[in-house]
Amino acid sequence: MRRLAAILFRSFLQGLLLLSPIAITGYVLYSVFTGIDNLIPNMEWLPFLHTRGVGFMIIIAAVTIIGYFGTRFFIGKWLFDTFAYLMEHTPGVKFIYSSVRDVITSFVGDKKRFNKPVWVCVNLNPEIWRIGFMTQRDMTFLGMEDKVAVYMPHAYAISGWVIVIESKNVRPAKEMTAGEAMKFAVSGGVTTVEEQEINAKDQL
């Protein structure tokens, strides 16, 4: 009975291991989908808007159109630049707006910052290296010569911390792309190891 109970309990844990990522991913996608879908207000004279998915498609299309015209046409670009200028110079609002804008543009867009993966030597004896992303190649403007700023993400979290370190202790992570480096850091190094093991088994 004990052996049977142990097998059943282990099978239950294995089931959780297999289903949890699928269930959590599905829940997040469903929440995003329904959240965006509900942004369209109820309009009795337009009943088709109540159809599931229509609101989602309208919001996605509107955002795409705004992004296209806001970056490729002078009038659209001027309007958004003017709006951004007003937001950046409005007391109280400017801190929220600039913070959100800087965080988003750090990950996406033409001005994204987390695109230069580097290895950082944080200890010499013994040598300890951490993966990070160089955000400032020159810290002279803050009175720190021969130093660089590196953002270091935490494992299994969306947070991280910034360190200022001498440039001689930093070297480019040429063996990884920015996406692979972020995945390596956030997963605690597990993702890349698993991929290497799978490739090794395939070769066998």
What does this structure look like?
- This protein is of the alpha+beta class and 204 residues long.
- It has a domain at 117-203.
- It is 53% helix and 17% strand.
- The chain has a 5-stranded antiparallel sheet with strand order 4-3-2-1-5, covered by helices on one side.
- Helix 1 packs across helix 2.
- The protein is flat, with a radius of gyration of 24 Å.
- The model has no long low-confidence stretch (mean pLDDT 80).
List the helices and strands and how they pair.
Layout: H1 2-37, H2 54-72, H3 74-88, H4 93-107, E1 117-124, E2 127-136, E3 147-153, E4 160-166, E5 170-172, H5 178-186, H6 190-203
Antiparallel strand pairs: 1-2, 1-5, 2-3, 3-4
Helix pairs in contact: 1-2, 2-3
Give a brief description:
This protein is α+β, with helices and mostly antiparallel strands.
- Biggest pleated sheet: 5 strands, antiparallel
Oligomer: single chain
State the total count of DSSP E strands: 5
Detail the poorly predicted runs: none
What would you call the structural class?
Answer: alpha+beta
Helix content: 40-55%
